[in-house]
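Aim 2 progress. For Tetratricopeptide repeat protein, the working sequence is reproduced below.
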Amino acid sequence: MRLRRGIAIAVVAGGCALTTMLVGLVTNAVSDESRWPGWLGWLQEHAWFSFVVLGVTMAGLTALLAGLSETRPPTPPGRPEDGTGPPGAAQVLRSLPRDTAAFTDRAAELERLVGSVRASQERGEGLPVHVIDGMPGVGKTTFAVHAGHLLSERFPDGQLFVNLNGHTPGRTPVQAGEALASLLAAAGVPTQQIPVGDDVGAVTEARAAMWRSRFADKKALLILDNAASYRQLEPLLPGGSGCLVLVTSRKRLVANEEVVMSVDALPPDHAVDLFVRLSGRPADTFDRDVVDALVRLCGCLPLGVSLLAARLRHHPSWNAEDLRGRLVAARDRLGELRAGERAVTATFDLSYRDLAPERQRFFRRLGLFPGTDLDPHVGAALGDVSVVVARLHLEALYDDHLIDEQPGSRYRLHDLLRDYARGLAAEGDSMDHAQAVQRVCAYYLAALTVVNGHIGRSGAVVPPAPDGASRVETPPLESRADALSWLETERANILACVRRANGLALYDLVVRLAAAMAPFLRQAGPWDQAVGLHRTAAEAARHTGDQRARGDALAELGVVRRFMASYPQAIEALNNAVTAYEAVDDRRGKADTLNQLGIVWYLTADNEDAARAQTDALALYRELGNRLGQANALADLGMTHRQMSRFDTAVEAQSEALAIYRELGDRYGEANSLRDLGVVHCLMGAYDLAARHHREAFDIYLELDDRVHQAYALNELGVVRRLTGDMEGARTAHSQALTHFTELGERFGRATSVRQLGVVERVTGDATEAIRLLVEALDVYRELGSRGGEAASLSELGVARGIVGERDGAIEAFQRGLQILRGLGDRCGEAEVLNHWGMLLFTSGESAAARGHFDQALTLARDIRCPLEEARALEGIGRCDWTIDGPGHGVGSLRAAVTVYRRLGVSAAVNDIERLLVSRSG
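Predicted structure tokens for this construct:
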């Protein structure tokens, strides 16, 4: 049954899809390592209505562009767009449902299962998948969960449970890619790192490869419940031979190496024992022949037996014969309508008719819930009752075995009971279905209004609460953590409500729910899920003729596409959003969308277009008096100017953004502007000021408990320390950042830390170790598609290879790096490579050729006011002149270099030149 594709195919497909996801993030990024991890921090809603998914990150993610080498300290992640970072992958590695008292003796099956697992483990063999099949209501899930609890100690790395909805009425089976996203998040993978894309097959393969890799060396137990087919579950199988997978299905799935276990109806004597135990009455008060006949009437199915026992428990005046008579009457009432399922359906009918009218109505409406599991608040919305009353109904229905209790005080209907309840509802008021969906959607809109108040940034647009929201009882969500936890729990249910509302042509609800979910999906993703939601919302808005709502949906779609690095699709969606906003003169929507277009162009190094879009957005925000929008546009404009080596205008824009963020009390905006100012000041040679900004940013990230941004701030601080001669301080900072990124699974940030450590090794004299580290970083940057990171690594790799005598390899690295930098328009990086290349030529005895490189670097450095590269070029020119024309020549250039170095505090370079000058005078 493990129809695994070849390892090579899985690896290649997985790698390709994963690369696709990250490629855009860091593609064409001109040295902005910041904007990527920023997805977490970039999460903040950009003022524009907050396009979803990420809102961050899934928010800002703007792409971490790689910052160039020595003088190109890693640029900090971009500003958060929505929220204060990612919700954090919930490490729910203990997610088995509670064991049930309704489990009865299946000793033979349990012994076979446990014995199979024990034998495989003792022999050191890979654990086969165990497939548990059987008819509906026979107790497959109960058996799997009970076995899972018995075996849990053998699988210390976690026990997970996934309902695949293979036969759930009203729900389509869970797609493998969707289930993998949930599993990866539960296993601790940051959602922004889960592969996404438009090719469903490639994305599923990529997620499957990541999932197998994640559990390759683990001992974990996974229950895949309610599988529809082998094709659905095969990608979910972990890669580790130490993992146990239990699958339940109504179908006899095709199998190869799996252990197939069929669970049949209970033997009559076991069914009788279960009935007696659950009835709460002494065994000697029953006539076993009567009980035997009773349980045979419900096919000896555990579900039916449990319901019958509950009926007797709640009617002390009845005896088993009374119950048997009522069950026979119920079967007769069903006639041929449900002939194929009359055995167990009769028990449903008997239990349902025993309920009070108001509880019957509540039970029927549970069958109309589009989601899977629910809490009393959702129950209240469905039943049109108070939460207190809903809780009483749910507890009573659970006591009657008509619903199952799930972890977290949540409840769900067994698939057979859900189908039964839906059938009852269909027999009643034909309008009840739409009304129930409207009520539950209205509840979710009211709750999302509260949630978005916690996860949104100050000044961000929050979708308005629905009419009558003040009368809707919402959960007590007191913090951002509460809000994110609630969203993770309800996400699938809300999206199911959107699908049902769309199917019922409740288009206004579709649009409003999509808008309300946008900030969270920006953070939590996965982005392909968000793409589907916003496409649906855009089409729903088209049906209603609401151009503003259509613009909102298209804008959200464009932002998510940006996060997926699907830049052409992002631009198309955003341009369409601008058109929609212009049609209704929505200047705020247009400004937000122009801001997002500017970010896309920034990421693709279309700097002039980016600057123009941000300038236009800024003008609109100023007309509207929108302070957060102004700050966001200014911050993005500052980053664009920095990318164009326009450092003075970058500082001006970023400083104004910083002032507004502080005025608004937006700590993330403040930290991100401080970080970017630190990068610019470092490039301008103001190292003390740069260090102060980075430390201030780091302290804010520490306060906000954002480890991703802390790590980026550490890398940037390490660059400043290295440039000012504090090599141990630099090594410490980069090592701490490397630890953070490794623990978080943030590959781009980790590559940057490795690259910066390589530079430290090169500067301190270990060129061989430097080459090893730089090659490692280069490989990752290329895999991620980061041209800026690739150029930075090549620049440093050229220097290190020159030191060890690999002249051809060094020149090749310089040539490739220079080509990338010129394509990106990064003139500061270009000057740096020319200086490195010139020094290689100089040390190789080619002083005339070297001087030409230094001359070019000097022109670039002075044009963009990059003092470190200016000093290096002056030093190179002076040394070349000294060598070509003899001692005493080039002194003017050398002294000019000393002046700049002194101003920068680069004492080592000053000492080297002064020794040379002293040798002349001596």
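Confidence is low (pLDDT under 50) at residues 1-92, 336-340. This observation will guide construct design in the next reporting period.
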